[in-house]
Amino acid sequence: MRLRIPMDLRAATRFPVSCPVMLTAESLQSRGSILNLSVWGCAARGPAEVRRGDRCSLSLVIPNGAGHLVIDLARVRWSAGGEFGLEFLNMTTPARSRLRRFLLDLRTASLC
Fold first, then answer.
1. What value does the CA radius of gyration of the chain take, rounded to a whole number of Å?
2. What is the model's pTM?
3. What's the mean pLDDT in 83-111?
4. Measuring CA to CA, which residue among 69, 86, 54, 57 is closest to residue 19?
C-alpha cells in the first residue's frame, strides 16, 4: 500500500487574509471575499457560480488602508462549494508592485 502525500506545487506562499472582492466575468458581477492571497493567485468565497476555466477581472480591497487593487485578468483554476481558486494572468506593473509590498508586510508581521 502506497501512501499519498499531498504536495503544494504553488510558486509562491499564500497568506491568509480576509478582504472583500468584486469579481466581473462575461455576464456576471458578484461580491465575495478573498481567503488567501499570493503574488500569483488567491482563493475566494462568493455567491458567484464560477467554473474552472472561466476568466474574470477582480477588484479587491487590501486591508490596512492600502486601497483597491485591480487584477485585469484572472483564470479560475478550481471551484467547489462556493469557493474557488484564481490564477492572476494580467495586472499592471504598479498593481503587482503594490501586491508584492502588501505581501512582504504580511510576511514580516508573521515573523515577529
1. 15
2. 0.82
3. 89
4. 69
